[in-house]
Sequence to fold (591 residues):
Amino acid sequence: MSDAGVIHDIGYQRYEGPRLGRSAVFGAIYQHGLRAAFGLGRSAKAKIFPWLVVGIVLLVAVINAAVKAQANIILFDYFSFDDTMSWLVIFFVAIVAPELVSRDMRSGVLPLYFSRPLRAFDYIGAKFAALATAVFLLLGVPQLIMFLGGAFTTKKGASGVWNELLDLLPGWGYSVLWALLFASISLLVASITGKRAFAAGGIVAVFLMTAPIVGVLSILPSSTSQHLAGLASPMSLLTGVQAWLRGRNDLGIDVGDFGVIYGIELFCLVFACLLLLLARYRKVASL
Amino acid sequence: MTIIATQSLTKTYGGGVTALSELTVDVEAGVIGLVGANGAGKSTFIKIMLGLTAPTSGEVRVFGIDPVTETDKVRARVGYMPENDCLPPDVSASEFVTHLGRLSGLPKTAARERASEALRHVGLYEERYRQIGGYSTGMKQRVKLAQALVHDPDLLLLDEPTNGLDPAGRDAMLNLVHRIGNEFGISVVVCSHLLGEVERICDSLIAIEGGRLLRADRISAMTAASDVLAVEVSEGTDELADILVQRELTVTREGRMLLVPLTNETAYDEILRAVAELDLPLHRLDQRRHRVAELFTTKETADV
Fold:
């Protein structure tokens, strides 16, 4: 374009350096996706929403830690923090999942991806890992803040810190379950359309429309239907899994003896979403 | 060196549509034009070479490697520029090409270096830090070419690289392709439905129609024997034709002109002598190189 370039033209140089394999390519998509999830390397507009959500959850965590330290009132424990933040998580994935997959579909960039040495599996795996990591960070970092607040203000010394840590780790585990389930469902919905607004609406709809079903099932007079009601919605499913694993029935959902079904459904749901995604992108990849 | 070899390559899509039929061709390194009308099977051929779709029957080898079984090996050595719009609007060309370089397996710093080098080679300098959404069609085509070059392939597959460009943009793009083929040492397959534009820059041509091979040869071979003399006289064209035939020259009429194949040195003199003997007013006597298009005119008139 500019003539000045000709002066500096040193000719074409062949590349002799290393060429990395599929795992490095996977890492590159993962890293790119994780950055995109928080709008890094994107315009300021793309940063607004993710960081708004991040700001709110951090604020809640800080308030929670402060109230606990000052007044010794526990607003949320590590588990109920996730449950309470569910709306924010829904909005977070509704914005980020379309950013990760619908955008590529919309701009037609996929043929460029799939004409390179990567497969549908790499693409979907890396995108899923990126979104799951983003959701985990969204929940796990505030939990860490709550832990630090608790650990620094404990009056029982090292054993207090240790007890706090033993509370945090299962809390993180619970956040991992949230991350896996929300990432898989929202990516699947987002992969259907290239229009970001539709994808976001679809994701919110899938998560929110299922909640009334739980409500209806849980007031049916059959105790079995009450125990199984939580299966109908992703949020109550996770609460049900928690109730099963912790042996509690005071979490809003009484799973009765059906706890294991919640666990199986969680696993199958994540697995099925990923398989469907893979099938979808196999087709896309072969154009 | 043969870079692409196919053996009765056939591709039939689900609905019974035959995109490629018994295509057998050996392609030498260089700049290769792949010409044919829309729907002739050019894009299908490219997709098969990239391992994006498997042939129904027949064999294909790119650099001696089978793209069906060893897809990654082929793709690592091939750069692909698709026909359609394929650029995200909200990132800079520099970031985008770097990212695609990493997807081709380049380490991070190498990807960044090669991305700016590739963009420089296609003629994007300071613009590369701007978001692609604000680029002109010509600049977007350059970005598409740069992303195909970023991992230093041995073969470029360009699907309609001049699509949507104005005449100046077309020339610039064709010159760039010519440079890549001749100065960079990278073989290039240029798909086009415009024969006139690829023949300028190509060493060899593959013409396909309806999935069948029409002709594959080096351009020089196609045009070598086809130099003709065009003779135009303002009157007495028939008499001149008769006398030339008597002197054992092959004469064909094209409108008001006579076309005489330039088979030997004397044809030129023979014609001049004939015109002088008949005392005809000579309008034109010039040597014409056959354009490659004329080799296909009988079959491809609609598209050339």
